[in-house]
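Example record

One chain of 335 residues, shown exactly as stored in the release files.
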Amino acid sequence: MPMRLDTRTTAVVTATIREWVRAVHPGGTGVGAGPAIPADEVERVFARVLDELLELAGSEPFPVQAARAVGRRLAESPFERTRMLAPASRALLGLAPGNPGSLIATRWSFVASQAIDSYAEALQQRALAQQERSLSEAVSVRVQEIAALQTRLRHDATHDALTDLANRSLLQERVRVMSTDPARGVGLLLIDLDDFKQINDGYGHSVGDEVLVTIAQRLRSSCPPETVIARYGGDEFVVALPARRNTLGELAMRVLSALCEPVPTASGPVPASASVGTAFCPPGRDFDFSDLLRSADRAMYSAKTAGKRQFAVSDLDAEEVDPGAPRSRYAAVAG
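Predicted structure tokens for this chain:
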């Protein structure tokens, strides 16, 4: 049951509540960043706070924790976004309830102080929590930015800037992993564009770059998913894949067909073709990337010498497939 207050105290409490409401609710618009709080709700909450604190001031034993619990409520709904520590302090500490010398009059300043201290502590904890959330969000964003930057840097370090194909270092690493497959060997295609210098000289280097980018796209479309495709030099590309020997010729023909179509550019269609050399290292054999690449390179030059627009199998592979065959074998694309 609410405490019965004398007439003077009731008048003081009523005046205090109204002053408090005017301080935190000027012009009826509310205070803080959130939606306006109706004045009657503000008045009702403040009246309940004062009633409870007055009740505690006249009770035994000394109600420290209960007074602090009442103070914490001022940091909760509907005031969680309202700045009112100063007006609350003035209102509570400025109130002088009860007759001089009475229990309420004696204890009021202590009860009010506990409530205000608890309210201030709750505001501080809320502010710290908000700072932690903001800091955590900022750190999370920064961590994501750093992770994205690291991913981009790793990508840039292992890919060609123009075509976005693998560069030499990534190619060698991926091929090294392929060579550990006990069931399949490593197949290599060395691809050299025919007469690319004439394209650069006749159309300009920007058109030459367009041709290289399109060639890279066509290689991606022509090769199986496990393939690693690298730009190995200016107009040289290497295709490596875990394979069986009899699949390389089929892939080489598919690549030649894709690369022998004219390339659309800003200067119009540009004729293109390529010569390809293949090499194969069977599973279980000691693997040396440099040796395999040299074998493919010799086969590619054999294809160039034989008239371009075709592929040649490396000498070693040709002998293993057919010991009586010529030292190089060729397959050309019609066109």
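Notes: The chain has two domains: 7-132, 168-332.
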